Amino acid sequence: MGCRLAPSLDRKEQKRVLDLLSRSFGLRYAPARRLFSFFLRRVPRKHCFIVEDARQRILGVLFVLDRALDYFGVSLRVAGLSYMAIHAQHRNFSISSILKQRLFRWMDGQSDISMGFARKIMDGYWYPYGYVGITNFGKMSLPLSFLPAPKQGYSMRRAQPQDYPFIRKSYKHSYRTLVGPLNRDAVLWSYYFARIQREKLNLQMIGRGNRSIGYCITKDNVVHELGGNSNAFADIAGVIGTDLSRHGHTEVILEIGFLHPFALFLSDRAHTKVSRFAWNGGHILRITRLPDLLRKIRPVLERRLRAAQVKNFRLACNNILFIFSRGRLRVEPFDGKPDIALAEHEWPKIIFGAADPGHLSALRGHPSAPLLRLMFPVGSPQVPYLDQF
């Protein structure tokens, strides 16, 4: 029994993999086959790990997607965990172990981090392998009556292909300071536009005449994504409120992240925020090699320390030594008694802003906690719906 990596599938392999996927997730076969046929045809930059027996029967598959995440100006390579399916007659621990062992060996040289979006039933499954939940599933609800009224002439219409350049530009502008959104090139956008049509999401343009000021992706009264000109947020909010009211809704729910500029714009109005933390599941992340990641994002940490006018310091965290001197930060290996000892699963929480360093048990009341808070400020990581795989 062996495991091989197939960057692409030939027609025969694709047929067998499609059948396995369609029988593995508790869905009716016909709609499942349509779903996974779309996945196999349209999802870009995917790799398939395949476990076969001696007769080349496919016993298990695991799909991994090549993606990238922008960490405040530094592009991180992402290995995206997608579908894993195991033949019904071989659903024992050995098949999944073979797939995971092969996955982790491959990721060592191919990724800075790995991400996945596990169903609630899978909570705890990936946790022993260093994966931890990093999003707060934030929802911000506002009564429509508290939204501003749009200026006369502004309205909403369904997006057309000629609007796609504006949408791509607006997304990049509105999400550039957030943690969680993936980098989207033309290839990935093409897949997303096809997915929007397949899932019957509402991709809407907001503007007046031929002038667009924003776009949004909605389903019912939930806004999953929004981009636009920040100086036009009042009109964007007003148009969204007017459209939802016309369809019988009384509130809007934003699932765009609490730190999205549009959410911040509306935060001085009456609203309700709900968050949920699932550290052992949900939207999960694993750091491939911590020292390599810290060295890669060192320029970001250095800028933060300079901006805070921090004085020189040396701080040993586990086997990592941070040395800040004359405005320059060095990240070096360390072999000795550390000033701070963090558990492996706490590093993703800190680096990606999911938790306040001062609130972690190892750092509660520690005099060096403020330094880590300056290097790794608390955020509100949220992965847009379209980026979830």
Sketch the topology as an H/E string, one letter per element: EHHEEEHEEEEHHEEEHEHEEHHEEEHH
Helix content: 25-40%
Discrete helix count: 11
What is the residue-averaged pLDDT? 94
Gyration radius, to the nearest Å? 23 Å
How many beta-strand runs?
17
Please write out the topology.
Layout: E1 2-6, H1 11-22, H2 29-42, E2 46-52, E3 58-71, E4 74-86, H3 93-110, E5 113-117, E6 132-133, E7 139-143, E8 155-158, H4 164-174, H5 186-198, E9 202-208, E10 211-219, E11 222-228, H6 233-246, E12 251-254, H7 261-266, E13 272-274, E14 283-287, H8 290-296, H9 298-307, E15 313-317, E16 320-325, E17 328-333, H10 346-351, H11 369-375
Parallel strand pairs: 4-5, 11-12
Antiparallel strand pairs: 1-2, 2-3, 3-4, 5-14, 6-14, 7-12, 7-13, 8-9, 9-10, 10-11, 15-16, 16-17
Helix pairs in contact: 1-2
Give an account of the 3D structure:
With 389 residues, the chain is α+β, with helices and mostly antiparallel strands. The protein has 11 helices and 17 strands. The chain has a 7-stranded mixed β-sheet, with helices on both faces. A 7-stranded mixed β-sheet has the order 8-9-10-11-12-7-13. The two termini are 28 Å apart. 36% of the residues are buried.
